[in-house]
Every structure is written in C-alpha cells, then in structure tokens.
Amino acid sequence: MKRPQFWWALVPLLLLFLPPGLSSAPGAHVSLQSPQGLGRWYPAPPEISARSAVVLDADTGALLFEKNADTVIPPASLTKLAAMQVALRATETGRIALEDEVLLTPDSYALNMPPGSSLMFLGPGQRVTVDELLRGLAVPSGNDAAAALAHHVSGGVPQFIEEMNSEMERLGLHHTRFQEPSGYSPLNQTTAREFAAFVRQYLAAWPETLSEYHSLKEYAYPAPENLIAPHAEGPILQRNRNTLLWDYPGVDGLKTGFIPSSGYNIALTGERNGRRLIIVLLGGPGDNHALGGATRARDGKALLDYGFEEFEVLELGAPQVSGIRVWKGERAEVELGVAAAPRITLPKGLREQLVGELEYEDELEAPVRGGQSYGRALWRVGETQVAEAPLIAQVDVERGGPVLVLFDTLRLFFRSVGHFFAELIASFR
Asked: pTM for the complete prediction?
C-alpha cells in the first residue's frame, strides 16, 4: 500500500461560495465533525439559553455546534414543516396540485381548533387552495390549515399522520414522530440533531419554499376572492413570529413553535456570501411570549454570528494518480482520481493545518472498471480525519489475450520468486 503525502492540498484551498442547498461533491464523504472532533481548534461557542441546539452548514453538512442535541423534545409548530414536506411530496407525484381548491370540513374550521391555537382563520363560506394553506402554515402557523391540508392530501388526519411518520422513517429519522399535524400535541417528538438533518433535506428538495413561504413577513386571510358569499369579515393580517426576518440580514426562514411542554423552538436558516446555515433551537425559556420570543431570537442571532464569522468552506482539490501498473490487461497503466473536489467547513485559520494523503495500490490486475474505487484520498487536521474521497479508475481496462495473460503471469511468478530469495538472503545477514 503506497501512502505518499500530497502537499498540493495546501495550494488550492479557497473559500467556496456556493448556491444554497448543495450537498457534498459526488463520490466524496465529508465527516460531520462535532466541536469535540477538532478539539482545541474549535472557537469558543456562545452561551445560549435553549435546552437543546444544533448548527449545521447547509452546504457541507458539517456540524458546527451542538448542545444536548439528542434530547427528545416536542417540536411544537415545527411539526408543520413535516406536514409541508408531505404535501410538497404529494404535489411532486401528482396526487395534488398547489392550485387545488380544498374542501373545508368543520374539523378544519378555526372555531373548532383547540384553545390557544395559532390560526389561519378558516371557516365556512370560504374557498382556499393548497398554496394558500401552505402560506397559512408557514406564516401564521395555522392549526386549522394543518387539519385542512391533512384532509385534502390523505383523506383525514390519521392517514396524514401515517404519511408524516413514514416520511420521517424514509429520511432515516428515528426519534422524530408525530401524533397530529399541527404541533399542538406534547406527544409529537424530535431532537435538535434530527430536525436539523430534516431541514437540510427539506431545503435541498424545496429551495423555492424560502421565497414562496418562509421568508414572508406577514400574511392576510381571507382575501375577498376567498369568500364564496358576501361576509362581514375582512382579511386578518398576521405577522411571522420569526423576528429575525426583520432583524438579521440574510435570514429567510424557517419556522417557530411553542407549547408549554416544549418551550420556545425555532428552525432557523440564513445565507451570507453564498453560505447557508441551519439552526435548530428547542426548549427555549420564557415566562411569556414576548420574553420567550426575545430569548429565542437572541440565541439564534448568537449562533448565526458564530457560524458565519468563525468558520469557512474550503474546496480541497481533486488529486489524480497516473502510472498505476495494470497486469494482464489490454493496456499497461491506468489513472486514478477523485471524481469531484470535496468541500468541507473548518474553523477559520485551520487551512494551514490541513494535510492530505493518498492511499492506493500501485499495481492492479485486470479487469479494472472505470468509476470503481481502487483507493482513497484523506484529509486530516492533526490526527482528526475531516474528509475522505474515493480514488476511482478513469477508464475500463479489459483483460488481455491469452498470450499477454500468460506472459504477465510468468513475470509475476518470477518476480515473487526473486523477492522470496532476496528476503531469505537478507535474513542470514
């Protein structure tokens, strides 16, 4: 096994400004390092009040901060993001359309929602579309909108909950499960780590939801076109409870939530200079909505500052290795290389500490398959591995004809015999 150091990795390390929602380079695995993974190199994080929190770099998936990240806490109205995920998947498969007019049933009327519910103010004598319900979930956080959407997508709340839980299972989330679609129930559960992973997938799948729904600062309903017959009520204007939409440049989502058993929650995202962060805060304190909302916003701002100001995204380059000997093949050599340059997120100032290494066999036997891995590239900071990518063959090398195979077999045999006697002689010295 050949293990040369490749110091070229230190040359092309550049800040990478990427569009939001992109994942790591194809074929590359980037370690999701916790702050403990890089030990003394991580900057000191801010003190936050929430019981549980996670900060992810949306582009690379790197974990920049965690606090009690696996504590199970009711998501409250963050649940509505999972409801939106199921509805958007249904539009993708053609089961429903954003333009569908939704038949409102009495159990989706605002007046029939549990006490203390956030409301879109759905009621009899109205017409509403799926698109409007999604806005009603995202901005005023309507529990009535969640019930109406459940009936339209799945035929009822129990069936919709089955779909929500199946979707979480499909996404590999083991602790995120729901009893109802609005977040009102304390039996809904998630963790900050899992919900951040869900949000990353959600944004990658539906980036348009940021501009269409989650960045809206207010929403008025019902508009005149929503009323089937003349009614006395006019539009009710409600503001988004994510105050950082106003107070922090670059924030464009995502969702707040509160029930007494969870505290003040938020799934937060923002973009700066092409970098997007995802923050999940669960269990924020507060004696009332004003204090809880202010503390939640203060925690969110502190973690946004931390993620944007203390870390950078680096492109590692894509090493190539030529001259790999291929025995018994129709060609004698093949080139190995990384398909695409990995990207990683590191604390600022660590690029000089980054070292790359190649591991590969310098001899192969045909057939060799193009695109198959025959080694790997590693990147480390100190003893901590921060990225890995496979070294793949660039072309197919088919097995040669009988004469060539026989000739190479004899050469390998005599070479092994020579090595044996050389080692035997050396042992007597």
From this structure: 0.84
